[in-house]
Amino acid sequence: MKILVTGGAGFIGSNFAHYYADKYPDRDILILDKLTYAGNLDNLTKLMDNPHFKFVRGDIADKEFIESFFETEKPDHVVNFAAETHVDRSITEPSIFVMTNIVGTHNLLEASKDFGVKRYHQVSTDEVYGDLGTDSKDYFTEKTPIAPNCPYAASKASADLLVRSYFETYQMPATISRCSNNYGPYQFPEKLIPYFFRLISEDKPVPVYGDGKNVRDWLFVLDHCRAIDAVLERGCLGDTYNVGGNNERTNLEITQTLLDFLGRDESLIAFVDDRLAHDRRYAIDSSKLQRELGWSPSVDFREGIAKTFDWYESHKEWAEKLMDKLEERQHKVISRDPQKPSRV
Ligand SMILES: NC(=O)c1ccc[n+]([C@@H]2O[C@H](COP(=O)([O-])OP(=O)(O)OC[C@H]3O[C@@H](n4cnc5c(N)ncnc54)[C@H](O)[C@@H]3O)[C@@H](O)[C@H]2O)c1
After folding, report:
1. Which pTM was predicted?
2. Ligand 1 pocket residue status of 13, Cβ below 6 Å
3. What pLDDT shows up at residue 88?
4. Best mutation site among 36, 59, 70, 146 for ligand 1, i.e. most ligand atoms within 8 A of its Cβ?
5. What is the per-residue pLDDT across 30-59, written as a single tens digit (0 to 9) for each?
6. What's residue 335's pLDDT?
7. Confidence class for position 324, pLDDT limits 50, 70, 90
8. Which CATH superfamily is domain 2-185+218-248+281-298 in?
9. What is the pLDDT of residues 174-194, one digit of tens each?
10. Where along the chain do its domains lie?
11. pLDDT tens digits, residue range 114-125?
12. Reduced to 3 states, what is the DSSP secondary structure of residue 194?
């Protein structure tokens, strides 16, 4: 059995590759990744000597490449993590989100259809559902209409619709999962939890968007990997499964938890202008996944935060290397057009 993991050098994809190699030591794992600023081969170091593991650098948006890649590699299962994922970047550079998240997914679906893939899984996000608003007590279920509000969410929703259409039209053996915010090892250091950990450790102000009352559900990354595995192994073809941690928190609460964890007070909080189209509340109902596939979150938030902090403490070089790469990119973008602010 050979599984193709696209985007496997990123945050969740690399966690999934490690999880999968441990759980299924006899299965072949093939990773395809473009290695954008978010992809990092260092995330896969531990797997490089595994005889069942192979890495290929490539772009899912390149149709010809994807066709010949599937013809050569003939994967049995495909799980698509590859995506542009940074919401702020989708507001300044939406076209790359259309290319990777929509065109790229379409290329994978076409190749999966043509080369007889037995299972295709699309890793999606709760952001496709839009905004619940602060006053509502509702949760997103799999029946909630999709109503994306930013280009990132719209590109992920479009990809989901393509997956659905391939199931309905061509009986593609496909599934979709939509997860809430993840945190844990290997997350790019510019993302909220690792970024705030670093600032707080250095006694620097932590920038909180708007009034800090935007609510998100947070899940430890390993629990997301377990959920995807359950859907790949036992999920009903054509179905969508919501994945969440029953762990709703405002951004301000997250910041307070991190300050508290590191023994600092709230004087480090600095409120900054809100981001455009910043949805107020996401909350996800994952009861279908729990009921039908027996999954439930296994890591509680405090425990997950402690594990994450320990991991970043013991991987400082890993994070510094990535931040240098990001700065290099920022310089390039700024020097191309000095009038414009950094687009990263
Ligand atoms: N991070 C979260 O909290 C979260 C929550 C729910 C769903 N998701 C979804 O999970 C998936 C993985 O998210 P992540 O946080 O690990 O993202 P990430 O940005 O850390 O990783 C994305 C990976 O995709 C690769 N990639 C980008 N464009 C590519 C292309 N054209 N061809 C091949 N590879 C390409 C990158 O190099 C990178 O390794 C995404 O589809 C995302 O929408 C993420």
Report:
1. 0.94
2. yes
3. 86
4. 36
5. 999 999 999 999 999 999 999 999 999 999
6. 47
7. confident
8. NAD(P)-binding Rossmann-like Domain (3.40.50.720)
9. 999 999 999 999 999 989 999
10. 2-185+218-248+281-298
11. 999 999 999 999
12. helix
Does residue 126 have an active-site annotation?
yes
Tell me if 39 CB under 6 Å of ligand 1: yes
Catalytic residue among 20, 120, 129, 152: 152
Q: Which atom of ligand 1 is nearest to the CA of 187?
A: 20
